[in-house]
Design brief:
The structure is a single chain. The protein is α/β, with parallel strands linked by helices. Helix content is 26%, strand content 27%. It has a single domain, classed as Alpha-Beta Complex (Spore Coat Polysaccharide Biosynthesis Protein SpsA, Chain A). The strands form three sheets. Strands 1, 4, 5, 6, 8, 9, 10, 11 and 12 form a nine-stranded mixed β-sheet that branches. Strands 2-3 form a two-stranded antiparallel sheet. Strands 7-13 form a two-stranded antiparallel ribbon. A hairpin with a 5-residue loop joins strand 9 and strand 10. The model has no long low-confidence stretch (mean pLDDT 91).
């Protein structure tokens, strides 16, 4: 299994903290966010990495080099235009080749056991992808996922409006007491995903959305497994979250 880490963005919500550092290089308890991710992935046996860089890419490349310090191999590719999550993985297409791969954003922190659980779940069926989720309550803040009895993806809706939520509830998609499953930003994919990212059109946000490729995959019969993340999941989205991590509160 190879891993692709998306680390191209500046992270504008971090304000002046990312003037000189890309967001994935902000320190958490002495090490960059990205280093925590790489070490977690390598602890479950992943040795080949492709890091998609952009803003201040030289900082990432200088810190990690060829990866030998961590006993891994690292390749870097640059995303010159920041136009969404849908096109960034395509930059790693040659690196991926014909094998399945793990894809993660460079600002999502989980326990290493989560990666191990993903790899185990992957062996349980013939899947084209695997999508991790966390349970939430405010269904308007992220991509909402609906699963069948085998916890495979049936439907995905990106940031539904309150009116859309009411339509879904009336149609029976939200059951009383059921959690809202949010996209957690860590995936496994077969290379077939590139057939779908290649056909993406820009969303109303004027970006290419990875979730649109996933929607197209399930609409054409591909099985996407779901996996609930147990325990720690942190989207390092703003200075407050970073400070809480530094204090060991999350």
């Amino acid at each position: 299994m190879k891993a692709v880490i998306l680390a191209a963005g500046k992270g504008t919500r971090m304000k002046e903290l990312t003037n000189e550092l890309p967001k994935p290089m902000l320190p958490v308890q002495g090490s960059p966010i990205l280093e925590h991710i790489l070490e977690g992935l390598s602890s479950v046996g992943i040795r080949d990495f492709c890091i998609v860089t952009g803003w201040k890419r030289e900082v990432i490349e200088r810190h990690f080099g060829d990866g030998s310090r961590w006993g891994v191999s690292i390749r870097f590719v640059e995303q010159k235009v920041q136009d969404g999550t849908g096109k960034a993985p395509e930059l790693a297409k040659d690196f991926v080749g014909a094998e399945p791969f793990l894809l993660t954003y460079g600002d999502i922190l989980v326990k290493p056991e989560t990666y191990a659980q993903m790899l185990r779940r992957w062996t349980e069926g013939d899947f084209s992808g695997l999508l991790t989720v966390t349970a939430g309550e405010d269904v308007t803040k992220g991509a909402i996922n609906f699963f069948d009895e085998a916890f495979c993806l049936k439907r995905l809706i990106e940031k539904p409006s309150l009116a859309r939520v009411e339509e879904l509830r009336a149609a029976g998609w939200f059951k009383p007491g059921d959690p809202a499953w949010y996209n957690a930003g860590i995936y496994l994919f077969q290379p077939v995903v590139f057939e779908y990212t290649a056909r993406l059109k820009k969303s109303p946000r004027n970006e290419y959305e990875l979730t649109d490729a996933i929607i197209a995959m399930i609409e054409t019969g591909h099985r996407i497994a779901g996996l609930k993340i147990e325990g720690r999941w942190v989207d390092v989205r703003d200075p407050g979250t970073l400070a809480a991590l530094e204090r060991g509160e999350v």
